[in-house]
Amino acid sequence: MIKIEALTKQYGQFTAADAVTFDVQAGEIFGLLGPNGAGKSTTINCLSGLLEPTSGDVSINGHPMVGDGIAAKQSLGLVPQELALYEDLTGHENLNFWGQAYGLSGEALKQRIDTVLDLVGLSDRQKDRVETYSGGMKRRLNFACAILHEPKALLLDEPTVGVDPQSREHLLSAVADLKTQGTAVIYTSHYMEEVERLCDRVAIIDKGRIMAMGTVDELRSQMGEKDLIVLKGDFSVLNQDVLEGFEVMEWSDNQVRFWCANAASQLPELLAKFAQCHIKETAVKKANLESLFIKLTGRALRD
Amino acid sequence: MNGMSMTVAKHSILKTWREKWGLISWLVIPLMMVFLMSLMAGGGPSPTPHGKVLVTDKDQSMLSQFLLGSIGQGPTAEFFTVKVVKEAEAQTLMDAGEASAWLMIEKNFMDDYLNKKPTTITLRKNPAQTILPNMVETGMDVMVDAADYLQMLFADELQKINKMVSTGKYNDADLVLLTLAIKAAIEDVEDTLMPPQIKLEEKTVEAESDDKPAFNFALMMFPGAVFMSLLFAGMGMAMSFWDDKVNGVLPRLVSTPSGIFHYFVGKTTHAKVMFLTVSVVLMVVGVAYFDVNVTLLPLLIFWLVFSGVVIWQLLLFFSLLMPSRKSANIIVNAAMMPLAMLGGSFFPAEAMSDGLAKIGSYLPNGMLLKAIKDVMIRGEAWQSALLWPFVIGLVMALVFWFINLKMVKKLAQEARS
User: Fold this and answer.
1) CB contact under 8 A, A86 and B18
2) Given Cys at both, which of B5, B57, B190, B366 links B1, Cβ 3.0 to 4.6 Å?
């Protein structure tokens, strides 16, 4: 449904996207994970027709964005990172505007407006001006504007930034619903939990290049199934040698962090080694995408 | 125009309507300026400026009475009311600024005049007024000159009159002799004063002179003020593209199948509707208060909408050249001031120097304003007055429309804010 081949976007000497290649099938949610400035939004902007790639091809539902843009855009919905709403119009008026922009009219438009308002939980506020909405409500309306025309492909560029938990839950469940309806979704975020919860496949992107791509489990396996163990207590009585053979991240008088394969089975034996340290707290964290990202790029997602 | 364009136009009108103060400022500020400027100039739809001249007559002689009468009668009476007051009251009234001028005739004025002695008439002018006090001064200069000539021409006769007045002794024979002497003196100078080559021809003034519009400063200012409204409205609507860029609507529109073209068509429709609204409201005011000819209304409204679109396209072009909303705002404001001032919106071109008026007539708004003033005020035939300005304006509007469409697309795609 969405196909990107060797997409490159350059601004002078700076390469914002470097030979990005992937495709997304109908009914699949594809996560694009990376810190700010990694190239996520550039990729999305090229996909939506806002930017013209320096080289490479982008097509939506079989229609190339360059050459057959109108047909490609008819199958595409975009939820931009920044809000794209008229604050001085009502929620209903905004939906009417974007519905017309996507080619809807008449009774079909009215029905779709009612449906999406219900979906994002804004039916009772539809006649209020957007300037009176909370940040989360604006985000939900921003999302609703993109799905009015039931697009076959949906691009979500960090849709939950600055959103309250209730609105986030609304949005995430709405995206999950779209997947079941067969929509191909590209979801960019730097919120790990969202990507792990929603996405069937994930690409980790940094400095314009895709560093790793696969299902969440496949990517986790690249970490070697190691778990992070965090212990809190008095470690001044012991030497770090006690953890010989483990990858130690931190050793201080009151906290120790280290990587451990198959932590669940080894934990009793490990705790026995620290018996004299008066352990107050023990935590075992499964290897996640963030740890993989740190391993691949050397920096955290929220950098 | 498709549904999307209609929706853009409808929503833009709705937004303008909800932002009432913007709309009100487009209409009210220029009208206020017309009223204020016409008040300052003493003009307006009211007839002729009228002032009060105070006279303190310390002489109370026949001649001083004659002087008083000459000011308060004839054509000057149309401009002035003469009030005879004591010196103290005159001082108070002048200090309060309630009179245009104060004329003081000193004691022995008549005696000194008849005896050819130096004499003084003091004129004090109100500094807060310009036109009326100067008219009094000019009138007094003429009278003083006339009195000098009378002294030269009728020296002997004046001497006899002086004797009669001072002694109070005169009879019919003396008066007849005096009259004959004056007649003879007039006949002596008749060839000089009324040479035969100067022939007075009587001609009946045709009734059409009554139909010509009288000089009306407010009417002269009014079309310029309407164009100022068009400039304000054009400026506001030019900046609305930047608003849509900043609020994210323009970039998002690029990802829709309707795209920027239908958006721009909708915005053009919005502009036309707003210019129509402004024109209709102002023209109704014009008919009610500024003697605008009601039969010209359809033509005037069409011309104002057309002019508004030309001005809007020009200002939009300036704003889209800029790299940010802030700089666009600065450049549009900077462009508007000379356009308004030289184009005849602040001051009528008739009040400018020839050089400035000529420069103003080459500006788009100045050219369009001059054309419509030729029709409204100078009564020229609209076909000839409007033809070339219309052709030039139409070409400008079309060229800028296509350039601006391209530039709005670029604005949507670039990282400007």
Assistant:
1) no
2) B5
